[in-house]
Amino acid sequence: MLGAIPVSLGNRSRRGRPGGLGWAGRGGPLYRGADEVDLPRLRRELALVRRRGFAINDQQTETGLTAVGVPIKDTSGTPQAGLSIALSTARFDRDALPAWVGVLSAAAERAESALAN
Prior knowledge:
By secondary structure, the protein is of the alpha+beta class. It has helices at 9-15, 39-52, 97-116; strands spanning 55-58, 65-73, 79-88.
């Protein structure tokens, strides 16, 4: 989902310094301007994530790290938080994705139930 934003906060913060590109400390800008965000692509990716019910971050915030996440929704169905797993990209197995999403989704449902009570 982060692919619509050319360089993510994680990568920027590693190399960013006060006043430099991507500096986020003390109110510094996260991005230079709106021209860095491909809004049509972002909208397409968000629509895909909503349809699938999960997101994949394949090295978009950290080289060599892949993450899979699901939303935790309130009683109206609005996402309020997320639950994810992260692992080395070398260990990421697309064939295991359905099982991982299943476990994450079950945990998210338990969290939603607990938060609703």
